[in-house]
Predict the structure.
Amino acid sequence: MLFAFLFSCVNEKEQRFQSPTVKSVALKSYPKLIVLEDNVVIWSKAGLEGELIKRCDKRSKLNFTGTVSNLTSKIRFNGVSYNEPWLEVLLRDGKKGWVYAAGVTFEKKGEEQFTDLLLKKRLETFFGTELNERIKQYNAKFYELDNVTAFAKHYTVGVELRNEIVKKLEDKIRLVDDATLPNLFWLENCLLGYSLQLIDNGKRYYLFKDFKSIKQVAINTRGDDDDRFVNLCFLMYPIDSIEYFHESWFLETSDNEGSSLLGRGIHKQILDKLNDLSNKDALFKPQIQRIKMDLLEDITNMKNTYWENKDNIIAELESILKSNYSFLSKSDIVAIQARKKMFESPEKFKIQVNLWSGR
């Protein structure tokens, strides 16, 4: 269904009227808005009670005056319930009108004074007051962290917020049949240190840690444990330093499928860095424990397949066992030893190895 139909059919009770329009700073030149769908309507006033001035084609451009309404209107589109403000636009003939914010996006990323204003309103309506306030507090502290202890605590808060935001997105977006996923890339800047990406063949949004921006924060803090931790994360996500579902020790060959790269030395490298971190003040103890468990799961999982041949795998496991890592428990060592024994006779234990060769 088109924006025009949806906008004209919203029940008056679903609109929330507040005080009159609030105007931002005066403009010397008008920022450009890009229309996201065909038949997006420009109205004579904010809301759905004005006169229809014009229908816009997808990808057409509008001049934004810098004025955002206090009025927000509830409209459901492409499986998402929006509650967005209205933006005042200036047409070529000199007339002014109002377009629904969900129907447009800013042409340039450099319009921070306006995108921030719109983002603030969107976050309030999209995530609710309590979660939005916590997001604001997190973002406000992001570039002000001055020591490694504050960094570690802030990092944990960011992960918790990311998980809540992703859950909120899943709750709000209910795609029907082959409906198009709505453009929500304004969320790219909602949580500092995270990158918004599409997953599941473009059917879901997810926020992944952006370790490039996180590293800039770590560099400016007192203490070096956070620098060590971020460098470990760079090793785990080496391609673009953006977190993903599969770390560097796993080769994804298709969606959610692939093989372990045990035997290439990656597991040993990461265990070395984990051991170094564990001998410090243990500020990153939860993260160290999670990464350790993921590595051990990759080594010992009976369902795993392995890209390298058995000789390379056994050599890396022997090197791990000889390292005498202090953070590995006795049960961890026993599990690695038992798995090494299995790799000596992979056929007997039905372990697929040497997949790189195609045999």
